[in-house]
Amino acid sequence: MPQNPEQIKDHAELFQQPEYQELFKNKREQFEGGHSDEEVERVSEWTKSWEYREKNFAREALTVNPAKGCQPLGAIFAAAGFEGTLPFVQGSQGCVAYFRTHLSRHYKEPFSAVSSSMTEDAAVFGGLNNMIEGLQVAYQLYKPKMIAVSTTCMAEVIGDDLGAFIGNAKNADAIPQDFPVPFAHTPSFVGSHITGYDNMMKGILSNLTEGKKKNTTNGKLNFVPGFDTYTGNNREIKRILGLMGIDHTILADNSDYLDSPNNGEYNMYPGGTKLEDAADSINANGTVFLQGYSTQKTQEYVKEKWGQQTKVLRPWGVKGTDEFLMTLSELTGKPIPEELEIERGRLVDAMTDSYAWIHGKKFAIYGDPDLIISVVSFLLELGAEPVHILCNNGDNEFKKEMEAILSASPFGKQATVWIQKDLWHLRSLLFTEPVDFFVGNSYGKYLWRDTKIPMVRIGYPLFDRHHLHRYPTVGYQGGLNLLNWVVNTLLDELDRNTNITGKTDISFDLIR
Ligand code: SF4
To answer: Which of the listed residues 16, 81, 201, 404 has the most CB atoms within 10 Å of its CB?
Structure first.
């Protein structure tokens, strides 16, 4: 379609021009069945009914908007937390382009990850040559300190043996023998991005700590964030540990990588946990996991191979943060500083201020299992009442844990936990049993548009709003942010519902 260079329009305006409207009309008639507006409206209404909900939930062979990502996406996210590390994906270029853009669109940052660009010949003969050449080029061109290898479905279907291939690459002098190349098999036809995160974290830690076990401990505690996409969280955890004087290693800290300063110079590998610190993590006093379901295999590995005590602590909301701090105090013998007690008081005060607006409000939520547990627990503290809890990548263990949390609260009784369901299922749930607000990632904006139910953006990805990922959601400070996002969404909605002059504006109050 020709454009007048004197009149460049933003696409929101551009597609309203007559020539585009004509094009859409023709497309609808020629390729989309050309149904009348009345018929489209009739079917649209039907999709909101209980009858449609039953058909929708009987669906088996199709997933619509699954609310989960691919395993290698989680793997490259984990790798980016280590100093000078280049994520390398054995597989097709298209997959890796998707992971990179997914992360870049969320963080508004460049994300460096390479692929071995497997095509048809590799699909037939295997991807060994791609791996050897790819590692050699990546090592020489991008000068990393470590290359972390994961796979796409293609390499997994063929059955590429990463351990053997990396050995072959070293024997062929593509990379030095002592250069660290941890790897993880990350097939996306099972699990999700949190499985990939877990596999890669375990792969990197086992590679770096091999032969590093000493007879004495290093006196530190390790902290594994899990697939936590809030860069503010690692910073908040480090601030809390600093206040308590706890010597620690974050495994691994990608907050500088995913939120780097613009100082005029491009740095391909900003920040990250030092490789020698990660290698020494095997000698720590213990390891605290800030998520449970995205770190299952890593937890097992740390317990069994490193012989360390492990704990899963989710420092979200008042109770979660209390437990986190008290456990750290028990583990290290260090007192909880007054500064944190004051922060607790501030959060409790803020919750009291907002309580009346949130108490009794019904809500739905979807996302990763650890995120759901953390957010629901906090909202229960505020007296909000969950109705639909949907976790595509949740398993029966998650369902059980979530149901135990719900039944322990007077506000959790009417919730249903749905695992392995998608956002099209959630659409049916929201139309047939509406709620006051829902919590989810940017994909929820279509649910918001269709159902008109207010949406609170918490989770990953957040493509369509800026900077939310920079704020912490953990600790008492993080609780303030969560509270702010929820209560102000509800107040915005109240304003929208009370703003008709002379009709509803008797309640269009200045003070809420
Ligand atoms: S599902 Fe498999 S093939 Fe598809 S993008 Fe993910 S890794 Fe690639």
So the answer is: 201
